[in-house]
Specification:
With 301 residues, the chain is of the alpha/beta class. The protein is built from twelve helices and seven strands. The protein has a seven-stranded mixed beta sheet, with helices on both faces. Strand 1, helix 2 and strand 2 form a beta-alpha-beta unit. The longest helix has 18 residues. The N terminus is likely disordered. The structure holds S-adenosylmethionine (SAM). The site of S-adenosylmethionine has 19 residues, from helix 2.
Length: 301
């Protein structure tokens, strides 16, 4: 694991948009390793509360240790912390309507998930084809590549990976069954998708992205979050969402625009904010990050 990949992306920008007030209630929907969550916690006072979600129990355990240290340092002055090991689409079950002063999400996978070969997210490390963020349930990527029909595979690789050669990839996958490891799948994809001239991205990137999004129902999760957020936020409360690929960003952009048209949101980022030169130099993961922020208006939902 490389240290710099654990630096939270667009940290200062997210904190600036959230404008944490010491006594407020803030939700981090994707606690991960706790970088942004710690930033929020350190800005809160004794009356404040941080609520954090992550459906990856390994990440949440590490984040808990990190946040517990901050709470211990603060003694009697510590804000409250509640961590919830569930998908953020279930937020309505845990968070009261009109109770939140700021909400953030830093979407996608964490460096912990990418770096741990056994989680099966990366084609750069030999591991089982798993890719589940929540390992308690749901099909693994292995089940998907081995059990889904060729047609369905092609569709999902096209829709969630934006892979133009999705039919060719799906055919190669079906021919290559049974497929059990990340390397085996990467090899199959590379055998039919040549590297694009002048592009640095690995030919298997889009297929892996598609499987990950499908396995974790990532786009449905984001839609559910944007649907729930207006009811949970107080008037003038803020929302900050970081996305890492165009499918996520499109949902964020469209949801905020639709909400703004209905008078629910005031959009604070006409264009998404991306990482500056310095951050790009220090943290390669920030390269594709896009931050959108909005403020809840006083109007209804
Ligand atoms: C990019 S990381 C967050 C990193 C974090 N901001 C930090 O500073 O360390 C994304 C995290 O969100 C979690 N996650 C992604 N989608 C989720 C969902 N729908 N519900 C709950 N957690 C989710 C992943 O398990 C992962 O740990």
């Amino acid at each position: 694991m490389t240290g710099e990949r654990h630096v939270p992306v667009l940290f200062k920008e997210v904190m600036d948009f959230l404008r944490v007030s010491p006594g407020g209630t803030y939700v981090d929907c994707t606690v991960g390793l706790g970088g942004h969550a710690e930033g929020i916690l350190r800005r809160l006072g004794p009356g404040g509360r941080l609520i954090g979600f992550d459906r990856d129990s390994d990440a949440l355990a590490l984040a808990k240790a990190r946040l517990d240290r901050v709470v211990a340092e603060r003694g009697n002055e510590a804000p409250g912390v509640t961590l919830i090991g569930e998908a953020f689409s279930s937020i309505r079950h845990y968070v009261q309507p009109a109770s939140v002063d700021g909400l953030m999400a830093d979407l996608g996978v964490s460096s912990l998930q990418l770096d741990e070969a056994r989680r099966g997210f990366s084609f750069q490390a030999e591991g089982p084809l798993d890719m589940r963020m929540d390992t308690r349930s749901g099909p693994t990527a292995e089940q998907v590549v081995n059990e889904v029909s060729e047609r369905e595979l092609a569709d999902l690789i096209y829709e969630f990976g934006e892979e133009r050669r999705s039919r060719t990839v799906a055919r190669a996958i079906v021919r290559g069954r049974p497929i059990t490891t990340t390397e085996q799948l990467a090899r199959i994809v590379v055998s039919v998708v040549p590297p694009m001239k002048g592009h640095r991205i690995h030919p298997a990137t889009r297929t892996f992205q598609a499987l990950r999004i499908y396995v974790n129902r990532e786009l449905d999760e984001i839609r559910a979050l944007f649907e729930a957020a207006p009811q949970l936020l107080k008037p003038s409360a803020r929302l900050a969402v970081i996305s890492f690929h165009s499918l996520e960003d499109r949902i964020a952009k469209d949801s905020l625009r639709e909400g703004a048209a209905r008078g629910v949101w005031k959009i604070l980022t006409k264009k998404p904010v991306s990482a500056g030169e310095e951050e790009l130099g220090e943290n390669p993961r920030s390269r594709s990050a896009k931050l959108r922020a909005a403020e809840k208006t006083g109007a209804g939902n």
